[in-house]
Amino acid sequence: MKKCDDMKDLLEAYADRQASLAEQKAVLSHLESCGGCRGVLRWIAASKAAVKGVPLPALPADLKRALLAEAARVRAARAPNPLARVREFWALRPWQVGLAFAGAAAAVVLFARLSAGRPEVLPLDAMLAAHSEYERTMPLSSQEQLLAELPERMSAGGTDHEM
Questions:
Q1: In the chain, where the domains are located
Q2: How far is the C-alpha of 106 from the C-alpha of 99, rounded, in Å?
């Protein structure tokens, strides 16, 4: 059997119906032989019943704003930080992360070595033919059009833009 001092917290939990089954049994066992704790339990129940009907006072607006701001700050602090997760992973498995980085670096070097063959050399006549085909089929941009028409405009006796 527990002493009355040990029962204080259990009586509160019992009155709130939040005590575990073992705690409920302990409280009931103690209450059978302790009139003082039965009185305390009646007082707790009466207090809770009296307070239950009282409406809550309105929360001041400045306190509400401060509480909401603090809640947002705490929520943001608890938000998952990807960089922190990487640091945590690195701290727990440094050799695995190092091995992964070494493998990635080796793959980059290998790819660079394999793909760094001699550049393809195009014959000059093939390049000129491609340029001629491009020039023949692609329309001129507005700037190219202006430059192409410039000699005709100058010979016609003036320019279109005035200074």
A1: 4-52
A2: 10
